[in-house]
Amino acid sequence: xxxxxxxxxxxxxxxxxxxxxxxxxxxxxxxxxxxxxxxxxxxxxxxxxxxxxxxxxxxxxxxxxxxxxxxxxxxxxxxxxxxxxxxxxxxxxxxxxxxxxxxxxxxxxxxxxxxxxxxxxxxxxxxxxxxxxxxxxxxxxxxxxxxxxxxxxxxxxxxxxxxxxxxxxxxxxxxxxxxxxxxxxxxxxxxxxxxxxxxxxxxxxxxxxxxxxxxxxxxxxxxxxxxxxxxxxxxxxxxxxxxxxxxxxxxxxxxxxxxxxxxxxxxxxxxxxxxxxxxxxxxxxxxxxxxxxxxxxxxxxxxxxxxxxxxxxxxxxxxxxxxxxxxxxxxxxxxxxxxxxxxxxxxxxxxxxxxxxxxxxxxxxxxxxxxxxxxxxxxxxxxxxxxxxxxxxxxxxxxxxxxxxxxxxxxxxxxxxxxxxxxxxxxxxxxxxxxxxxxxxxxxxxxxxxxxxxxxxxxxxxxxxxxx
Length: 468
Known about the structure:
The chain folds into 3 domains: 2-20 and 29-179, Nitrogenase molybdenum iron protein domain (Rossmann fold, 3-Layer(aba) Sandwich), CATH 3.40.50.1980; 193-314, 3-Layer(aba) Sandwich (Rossmann fold); 318-451, Rossmann fold (3-Layer(aba) Sandwich). Helices cover 48% and strands 12% of the residues. It has 23 helices and 13 strands. The protein is globular, with a radius of gyration of 24 Å.
C-alpha cells in the first residue's frame, strides 16, 4: 500500500512536470532509485514531521528509536499563539528487544498514556525505518486505538528510507487527506474563507500576513499547518479558495481538495514586495469569482497601495548601503526564486542561487525572472562554495545552518534564511526585517577583524620566522 501511495504522489496530475509528459512517459512515473546520502538534507519521515508538527494542539508520537526523534524534533522554529503540546517530544524509543518481539503493543501503550495524560484532540503517529522494516502495522494499531480511546489517531506512513524530505511532505499530505480533512464541520462559513497550504509559521511569519488578510476581509479558515489546530485543519474542506506555498510540495493536497470539494487553488509566495502584492490580488480575485463581494478587490488594492508605499519608504535608506553588494543565495524550494525578487527589490545584486531542493517549476520561474544567463546550481559542492567566497566573488552568503561553516571559514558574512532562523521575513514587514538583518550582518565589525592578519603573521616576529 505504501508503494502504491508513493507511485500515486509521484504521478501527481497537478504537477507541471507531469502535465508536460507524453502518455508513454507518464506510465513510467517519476520514481528513481535513491543515491547514497540522498536523505542527508532530510528523509521522508523528517519531511512528514515538518508538515504536521506545527499542528500545535495535537500530540506527535514517533514510533522508532529515540534518535529519530532527537535528530528531527522542533528544528524548524514553528511558533504557536496558543497550545504548546507540539513542542513535547513523544517517542516509543524502540530497543533491540522491540525489534525482535515487535513494537505494536508498546505503540498502543504509548498512545494510551498520551491520551490519558494530555487529552489532545488527536495523536499523529509517525512510522520510521526500523519498525517499517520489522513489519509493525501502525495503521492497524491506530485504528484500534481510535476505537478504544475515542480520539482520532492518525498513522503517518513515511519511513525515512522511502525517499527524500519532499516525498515525506507529500505523504504527510496524503495522511491529512485520508484521515483528517473533511472530518469536522466549521461552526459557520463565509464567502471569503481561505485555506493556506505549506505555510509553517516559521519565526511567526504567518502573523505578519494574517493582519493584512483580516483588514481586507479575508478569513483564514485553515492553515496547513502553521499555528494550526487539529479541528481547523479538519475543516479545511469548507474553504472557498486554497493557496499553496512552498514549491508545490503539497500540490497533491490542493489538487485533491479541488477534485473532492471543488475548491480552486493557486501557488503564491509571501516573500518580497511584488510577490506579496500578487498573492493578495490573486486571493481577492478568486474569492470574488466564487461569490464574494466585489468590494474585496478594492479593499485589497487599498491595502496593497498603502503597504507598498510604506515598505519602499522604509527600504530607501538601505539602497545606498547595499549598492554593489553581491549575494550568494544557497537555499532551495520557494526561497530559490522568491528571495531573488525580494533581495533585488532592496538594491542587492544576486550572484546566483542553488536549486538542489527546488522543483522544475522553481527553476523555470527563476529562468523567466532572470534569463538563461543567471547562475542556477543544482549541485554546488562545499569546496566550490568556499573557493567562490574566498575569491571575493560574494559579499554575503545566505543559506541554512548546515552550510554556515563554509562561509565562516572563508571569513565572509553569513545570514540564516532557512527553517532555524529567528526572524520573520514574510510579508511587507518581513522584507524590511530581512534588509535590517543583512545590513547588520554586512556592517558587523567582526568581519574586518577576522580578515586582518594574526599577530604572528605580521610584524617583526613574522619576519624573523621567515628568515629562520
